Amino acid sequence: MSQKLLTTGAFAKLCRTTKETLFHYDRENLLKPKYTAGNGYRYYALDQLWDYEIIATLKDIGSSLREIRYYLQDTDPDRILSFLQEKDRALDEEIARLLRRRLFLGDMLKSLQELSSSTPGTVTLVRQEEALLEVWPIAPADARNACAVWETFYTYLEYYRERSRVVRWPFGMILNRLDEEDGQPGAAPRPGRYVWRCFFGLAAGQTGKAVQAPDRMPAQMPDQAAEQAAELPGTPDPLGLAVRREGLYAVCLHKGNYLEQEEALTAFLDVLERRGLRHDGQIFCSDMLVYSRHKDKTSYVNRYSVRLEEDESAARRAGTSFPLDG
């Protein structure tokens, strides 16, 4: 019995594809018609449906037409196994890349949702859960040199890029306030001067992925982790783990130009002091518009937070807000 042949249109309909796709596969020597008539009409056999499905499947797993042609030239089992193992590894890498994109998108949403629901210039007392942070120390010699801090920041980002990772939100810097002139015993306090301690981001372990803490730096307070790492010059991996403790935090968002931020931070700490709210001295600072930079130079929004020392009075104020200048 003669084999039933289908026109290009009928074969394309069975394959849920287009005639143009079949013409392209013919030109690429991937799937040629079973028979070509003298008038140029192409005809395909039913058993070529399986050939088309192999091509479609290989395309679905990310194979190029060149790779598919290589595969179809020789279907020796060992050769096929090697080819598919290579595609399996490539798919694992693609899945990891997509998961990183999803994490990045989720972090963007969290940042901008918090920004849209907050009022800049207002201090709010909120409870925050414990969080494991990845911290990157800033060397003490660089801590008050803006250029050196920025250089450290780009080294920090490069560390993640080289490992195909993203810094997780919330991320930013941890600062300490200096109340005395260094090297001048007895000098009058000068509030408003700050020193950068480390950069921080949410540890990957917070999403269910394991994070191995370096043996030299167990999870601890952020300033302790930064100080210990900074004492280890030349070590290949200064990234460490630290804990942001659970507790009552004072949080303030300030919108303004870049040069106003230190003044706003000083005002934030001063208003806490006036209201009798003591804190542990670690200042978490995050740029809320890091994902949405504006041309308007007055549109910087920084988020400042400190963990309060809780007493009965402070605990009663959880959930309350007051103006930064109040």
UniProtKB/TrEMBL annotation:
Organism lineage: Bacteria, Pseudomonadati, Thermodesulfobacteriota, Desulfovibrionia, Desulfovibrionales
Keyword annotations from UniProtKB, A to Z: DNA-binding, Repressor, Transcription, Transcription regulation
Residue ranges occupied by any HTH merR-type domain in the UniProt entry: 5-74
Pfam assignment, any one: MerR_1
Protein name listed in UniProt: MerR family transcriptional regulator
Molecular function in Gene Ontology: DNA binding; DNA-binding transcription factor activity
InterPro entries: DNA-bd_dom_put_sf, MerR-type_HTH_dom, MerR_fam
Cross-referenced PROSITE patterns: HTH_MERR_2 (PS50937)
